[in-house]
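Model: Ready when you are.
Researcher: Fold this.
Model:
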Amino acid sequence: MSAIEDMDLPTQLRRLGLGPCEAEVYITLLAAGSLTVAALDGRLGRGAGEAARATRRLLRLGLVAHLDSAGDAVSPVEPTIALDQLAHARAAEVQSAHVAALNAFRDFRRSVHSQPTEDLLEVVSGPQVAERIWQVEGAAESEVLRFDSPPYHTAGGPNPIEVRNLERGVAYRVVYSASAVRSTSYYAGNIQPCIAAGERARVLPTVPVKLTVFDRRLAIVSMSSVEAESNDSLLLVRPSSLLSALSGLFETAWRSAYPMHLSGQVPRALRPVQRRILELLGTGVSDETIAELLGVSRRTLSRNLEQLHQLAGSTSRFQLAVHAARSGWI
């Protein structure tokens, strides 16, 4: 192996800023001593004119020189000065790249951490609120997370967009407040149809905020009952630490909420009304409200509750709930 090959000279020359063809021409001249451009073309086997272009740059850099006034042949010259110039040029390029990278990172920091508030938050109010809610929900692609409680910008009626989204594979997880479940019309027109369509629903006595998160990339925060009386508006939150915090808040509440739908392990002997009773027992609503939600009399509710107690071997709503949980009914 020659000294030139041992030093991997082509790689070193390219690091200094020579192109592949220029490095090859220079190494060929070091081995041959001197050659005409035509001879270089023949030895390199590259495209016509490539050796000539490489030679012209080597001449400008001072790495080769003409042997005579005719300029037909060139030979390498002592490279100290030329290589020093190349090294300084590369150092200047590296420093320029260093400065450009730092400036780019500073711009990134400003865009992420000092991004104008209007790029992260948007306030929507008045008649545009309901339209914006339907628009955003209709564009959901994979997952919707929701804290559901009154009042409702969409009049608290059915939600056909959610049903269509569920049919096309969008996953919904909803934590309802007890006040939402207690509304007979809302329970019958919105909650039950959505659960039947595949929504995973849970309930808490209250939810910390009115919130819907779409695909983890946009959240809608609405006013509470008290706030809505004086300010009928909502807040759109785009990707930010605030959006991450809201998503985390939902997950924490979801883990502590009580399921509103039954599993596949519920005894087949249970009638549909008894299944609905079990779903509502954990919501914290009264027997009177359950009867109203189901559209049955208190006497019918009592009779079905008694049959559920007999099946579970329980004597109270608490024991019935414990049995349902242990048996995997919910």
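Researcher: Now this one.
Model:
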Amino acid sequence: MKQMWQPARALAPGALLALLLPLAACGSDDGGDGGSAGGDTTITVLAAASLTDTFTALAEDFEAEHEGVSVKLAFDSSATLAEQAVGGAPADVLATADTATMDDASEALAADPQLFATNTMVLALPADNPAGITSYDDLGSGEVTYIVCVDTAPCGKVAAALIESTGLTAEPSSLEVDVKAVLSKVITDEADAGFVYATDAVAAGDAVTTVEIPGAAEQVTSYPIAPLVQSGESGLAQEFVDLVLSEAGQQTLANAGFGPPS
């Protein structure tokens, strides 16, 4: 199975909307085989927020192997990115945090999507754990606040399934746009706990502690990737996909805590 994925300069969530104004293709105008004006070429990768660290590292690897090529990264909720891809956003590659969202973007895909990683959820707590949470059951006490992603985002769908399967009746105190927003509020003590992917907890390091969520191992998230039909650099777009699927790309993902594609 191929692998790939590399991120360089990342756009803030929602920043891709600005790219929709001039619907010009990224990179050169020659179908992806030549360079753009001045000899520089740019490809844009739309990726789920949970891929921020790994795709940033992969993008740097890609640039190092492709002289004169830059990788622009746009991270956001998978649902938002899929909608933008279908709307013709000038981008070259799409990577989402679930297969259903990728299916929603099927008309914008230039090739069949390929699975490249898996992930599971954990309960993240601030490092100092001010609420004194010791187990998942503490969320049902009514004395702690917890947050999840909106249910339109893959992280929200998984969280909702886990909440239902565990019989948790306490409502989340807020719904966040993506998993990075959940993690940020946990780290800054704006919530006592948050449902995040295991990889996000790994990336946060000592800023958080974690508690296992019952049944999380049965709610595995699969990540697909595909080049986009609007890409002006189709060759480079496929090469980026290949990098994510490659042995080197898979090692980068594994080091971040992602599981292999299933």
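Researcher: Key takeaway?
Model: The mean pLDDT is 88.
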